[in-house]
Write a structure and sequence with these properties.
Chain lengths: ~325, ~325
Amino acid sequence: MPEAGGFRRLAIIGLGLIGSSLARAARQFGGAGTIVAIDRDPAVLERVRALGLADEVTDDLAGVAGADLVILCVPVGAAGAVAERMGPHLSPGAIVSDVGSVKVSVVAGVSPHLPEGVTFVPAHPVAGTEYSGPDAGFSTLFQGRWCILTPPEGSDPEAVARVQAFWEGIGAIVESMTAEHHDLVLAITSHVPHLIAYNIVGTAADLEAVTQSEVIKFSAGGFRDFTRIAASDPTMWRDVFLANKDAVLEMLGRFNEDLAALARAIRWGDGDALHDLFTRTRAIRRSIVAMGQETAEADFGRGRPVTDTTSSARGEE
Amino acid sequence: MPEAGGFRRLAIIGLGLIGSSLARAARQFGGAGTIVAIDRDPAVLERVRALGLADEVTDDLAGVAGADLVILCVPVGAAGAVAERMGPHLSPGAIVSDVGSVKVSVVAGVSPHLPEGVTFVPAHPVAGTEYSGPDAGFSTLFQGRWCILTPPEGSDPEAVARVQAFWEGIGAIVESMTAEHHDLVLAITSHVPHLIAYNIVGTAADLEAVTQSEVIKFSAGGFRDFTRIAASDPTMWRDVFLANKDAVLEMLGRFNEDLAALARAIRWGDGDALHDLFTRTRAIRRSIVAMGQETAEADFGRGRPVTDTTSSARGEE
């Protein structure tokens, strides 16, 4: 088994940020023998060729033939349609996986189109940046990040183990859970955060009393942090919200309840309630930093001067 | 006039992140002759002495005597009380300034306690990190960041010009506006962003269906970005929300309206409305980056591998 997971031929469908990072990672860390890049966008294919990201490059979904691992890296709303068109070309024994941020709807959309003898092992690497496209990818995107597998009950354990080995080979930490639980967890750790970031950036842009120029100039007060995730790929995120509607609306309901209580505390001058919450939330960041999922550097290390020797980023309370 | 603004003796009251950064900056970039550090917390004074941040260090507000520039760097809720106690010690002709994130309430709290012949030039440097205390400060915190002055009508233009020169001397870009407008602008660019960040971190911590360990592990999906500003100083932020109640609640009302519309678009599957918003918000980040208020590096440059030569952070749509 020369490669992690033992895959000879890896087909990646969709060479955006994630797909192109996968191609780079698989090549750099030995995730597969031959890499086939499939994308319907001629501009993307041209960049993939220019960057030398794959051994074979095509716009034809028939390119999945002969692959023992096929990874769908398309927006979750497109996964079903792509599966339908590639299904007839899949080789017996192939494993199909994906990288979608929503799992229940992807499983429902993809599974019916896979022929007998092909196993679907849904996966979601919890990693990304605000940039899109094949130029934005990089080989170490998945290092130290979690990748969640949501194998349906009764999945072939051998296939699951091989997909796990593939992800571990490119640096990810793998955890398994049900698709339903995944969608709930990600609704709060990813989808609702994106939704409220998109929302506040939109709110700020639409104000009459405050100009857009003022919003931009004084964004270092906190607003600019939100603009990063509100700069994420619009198509990907449209699909995420539509595909994970129930969990997103449920978590958003909780968020709204809590926000109403907070607004009430402000209106009635309940400083203790505010201080208590703000102290609790500070501790949660410490846990995230301690678990290696976040930098401890002040301000994300963003713009931190390298020449300033008087500084130290020790947090105090 | 050897120093920017021509101040001979600068008294800084409150040596937290901002106050200690001011002391470092004034010393490094020549903002004042002698620096006096005043803080009521013995632990802070000990660190200020150990770090050598000031020429004189005291817990006595009488230390403002002889200073021609006094800068209040205390939580906005404490500004009035501190002004009342230091007022009798202020020297004729002194300029008092502050760094508070709210201006109307600070002006109302401080002004009545200043003796005749002392000018108040309220200021707010839009800069900071999620860390607190004298060890967290650094001299370049204000470089390239805006500092907003809100001089009341009829202020001595000479005093305002000197405070402006002081801030420009330590690297800030200065803009003036009314205190009322400041509070509205900062409500949307800083206060409401902090409020919703604190809120979602609290919501996530309180869920039953998703464990805290899951929230922490899978935070790279977006959530962790919010934890940075939700790790900001609890006392400072409690005071901000109480002091800028009206503007915060007004902007929060706008945010909530927009969020309700977004939730409705999700519920009814209006993908176009989502895609339109998500495309608009992406453009706003570009403007912030273009204006030098944000890094263009993917993911804030956080955890970006220095060894990965295949990557390029070019954004695409």
